[in-house]
Amino acid sequence: MEKVNALGRRKAAVARVYLSEGNGTITINKRALDVYFPSSILQYVVKQPLHKLDVVEKYDIYAHLDGGGYKGQAEALRLAIARALVKINPEDKPALRAEGFMTRDPRTVERKKPGQPKARKRFQFSKR
Fold first, then answer.
1. 52 to each of 74, 83, 98, 104, 124, how far by Cα in Å?
2. Strand order of the sheet with strand 26-28?
3. DSSP conformational letter for 29
4. If 0-12 CB within 10 Å is exposed, 13-18 middle and 19+ buried, where does residue 20 land?
5. Does domain 4-99 have CATH number 3.10.50.40?
6. How do the domains of the chain map onto residue ranges?
7. Are 117 and 88 in contact (CB under 8 A)?
8. What is the pLDDT of residues 39-66, one digit of tens each?
């Protein structure tokens, strides 16, 4: 099996993932998963699609993460891994879709409007 690549996005984060057969090593920006995401919760989020299909020890994953914060990056990586797994085996899609791993979360930061301090906040109104 050659490398399978996929893209995942969340908020401002972009994850490019390269999946190949191996022993379960996850490398992010040339660093190990536990170094890049010290939080065990974020490590769990990243591995969710692999645990769902029970293929944690089957694939080596190399990921390039860019933009956003650590939570957005972890969720973008989860989406990219799920998409790559579906490219390898399309029969896995319903199982991953049921868990919500195939859905791109469309929520992003609302733009700031002119004449206001933030997107929805207004400057204080003064009658006189």
1. 17, 13, 11, 18, 51
2. 4-10, 13-21, 59-66, 26-28, 31-32
3. T
4. middle
5. no
6. 4-99
7. no
8. 999 999 999 999 999 998 899 999 999 9
The whole-number pLDDT of residue 2 equals 78
- CA pair distance 68, 123, nearest whole angstrom: 28
Give the position of tokens 């919760």: 41
Q: In 3D, which of 22, 17, 80 has the Cα closest to residue 48?
A: 80
* Tokens describing residue 108: 């992003």
- What is the spatial distance between Cα 41 and Cα 38, in angstroms, rounded to a whole number? 9
Torsion angle (degrees, nearest 10) of CA 23, 68, 75, 14: -60
CB 19 within 8 A of CB 59: yes
Q: What pLDDT is stored for residue 128 in this prediction?
A: 87
CA–CA separation, 32 and 99 (whole Å): 26
